[in-house]
Amino acid sequence: MSSFLPDILALFFLASLIIRRLGVDLSFQPATYQLLTYILLLTIGLKGGLALTSEFTLGLIGNSLIVVLLGVVLTLVAMLVIKFFSPLNQADRVTLAAHYGSVSVGTFAVAISFLQLKNISYEAELNLYVALLELPSILVGLWWLNRKKSHTSLKTIFGHQSLVLLLIGLVIGALYGDIAQPMIKQLQPLFAVMLALYLIHMGAIAGGKFGQFGNNALFLISFAIFMPILAAMIGLGTSLLLGLSVGGATLLMTLAASASYIAVPAVFEQAQPQANVAQALVASLAITFSFNVIWGIPLYHHLANVAI
Fold first, then answer.
1. Which of 145, 104, 33 lies closest to 251 in space, CA to CA?
2. What's the per-residue H, E or C state across 141-189?
3. Where are the transmembrane segments (predicted)?
C-alpha cells in the first residue's frame, strides 16, 4: 500500500485544485497553514539528520559535497532555461527554478518501490542525499532574490522561519541520532496526514491562481517535462562521478529529475509572497510528478543500465 502513497497524495492536490475551479475554496487560515508547514519541515529535517549520523563515513563527506553542488547546478541551469525561454518576472523565475533544483520525496519513494519490485539494490547513502538536495536550491534562490539589496546578509538569507525549522531539524537529528528516532517514528504517521492537508491547501491556492498562467501555460507544461529529462542527464553524470551502482544511479537521476512540492513552496510562500508559488507547484506536482511516475523512472533506470 505504501508504494501507492505518492499517487494518493497527488490526488489530494488535484482534487482540491479542481474543486477550487468549481467555486469551493478548501484553503486554510494562515495559522493552520503555518502549523502544517512547521510539522512537515521539522520532520524532513530530523529524518535527514538521522541519516547523516547513521551513514557517516569519511568518504561520505566528499560525496555529500558533490551532491550539494549538484543541487546548486540544477538550480542555476533551471534559471538559465527559464530566463531564455519564458517571460516570467524575476521572482517567479527564481521561485520556479528553486522548485526544480530541489527534490520530491514522493517521487523518490516511488523510485525505491520500482527498484524493489525488480530486486535491484542501491546505496544506503541515497537516503541522506534526499535531505541534502532539499537545501541548496532554497539557499541559492533566496540569495539570488536578495543579492542586489544594500543590506543583504546571512540573516536575510537564513532568517526565514521555514528554512530555520528545516535546519534545526537537520542539526538535532544529526546530533542525537538514534535518540531522535522514536520522535521521527511518532511523527511519520502524522507526516502523511499533514502532507495531505498541506496539498489540499496548496491545491486550493493553485486552483485560485490557475487562470493567471495566461501565455505562460505552454512554457510551463514544456518546461515541466523537458527540465526533468535534462536534470536526469546531469544526475547521471554525477552518478558516474560518485561511482554509484545502477540502482543508486537510478535513484540519483530520479532525485535530480524531481521537483519539490513541500519544502520549497513552504519557504518561498513565506519568504517571497510576491512570487507565484502556486504556478510553480502546479508545474512540479501536477505535471513533473506525474511524468516521472508514469514514464520518467523507467527511462532513468534504462539509461543508468546502459551507462553503468
1. 104
2. HHHHHHCCCCCCCHHHHHCCHHHHHHHHHHHHHHHHHHHHHHHHHHHHH
3. 33-53, 65-85, 97-115, 127-145, 157-177, 189-211, 217-242, 249-268, 280-300
- The residue assigned the cell 529535517 is 45
Torsion of CA 220, 145, 67, 129, to 10 degrees: -80
Helix, strand, or coil here: 217? Answer: helix
Rounded to an integer, what distance in angstroms lies between the CA atom of residue 162 and that of residue 1?
31
Whether residue 142 contacts residue 157, with contact meaning beta carbons closer than 8 Å, is answered with yes
Copy the grid coordinates of residue 104: 520530491
- For the stretch 225-280, pLDDT in tens is 999 999 999 999 999 999 999 999 999 999 999 998 877 887 887 777 778 888 88
Give Cα separations from 7 to 11, 130, 193, 283 (angstroms).
6, 19, 14, 16
Cell numbers standing for residue 217: 501555460
Residue 155, C-beta contacts closer than 8 angstroms, at least 6 positions apart: none
Cα pseudo-dihedral 124, 127, 132, 137, rounded to 10:
130
Query: How does DSSP classify residue 253?
Result: H
Give 212's pLDDT tier (boundaries 50, 70, 90). low
**Considering the chain, what is the average pLDDT of its residues?**
83
272 phi and psi angles, rounded to 5 deg: -130, 70
Q: List, in order of start, the domains of the chain with CATH numbers.
A: 2-16+30-307 (1.20.1530.20)
Q: Give this prediction's pTM.
A: 0.77
Amino acid at residue number 163? L
Q: In the numeric block, which cell numbers belong to residue 231?
A: 536534470
Contact 70, 254 (CB under 8 A): no
* pLDDT tens digits for range 87-110: 888 989 999 999 999 998 778 877
Amino acid at 266: A
Find cell 502524522 and name the residue: 190
